[in-house]
Amino acid sequence: MRLFVGNLPYNVGNDELQEAFQEAGTVVSARVIMDRDSGQSRGFGFVEMASAAEGQKAIQTWNGRELSGRALTVNEAKPQPEGARGGGGGGWRGGGGRERR
Hints:
Elements: E1 2-6, H1 14-21, E2 27-34, E3 41-49, H2 52-62, E4 66-67, E5 70-71, E6 73-76
Antiparallel strand pairs: 1-3, 1-6, 2-3, 4-5
């Protein structure tokens, strides 16, 4: 079961997140989402638990509980829409090939 973990302290990394959630069961993966430009934590992440029962236990254990002084928000992650990859849109490409004289 994949879990969304919100309101993470900015100093918590992948290892600390995994270690904390192991209290509820087997953690398959734990990932803190980082800002692409600054390299800083964005304050949320995802934890994948080995089973739905362990996922439910993790929600009960960690939702509202403090980690490094911040109360976490933990719930089942919503599936990503088909074809969505995140990242942002194209932006203005400029020019058009004409040259001013």
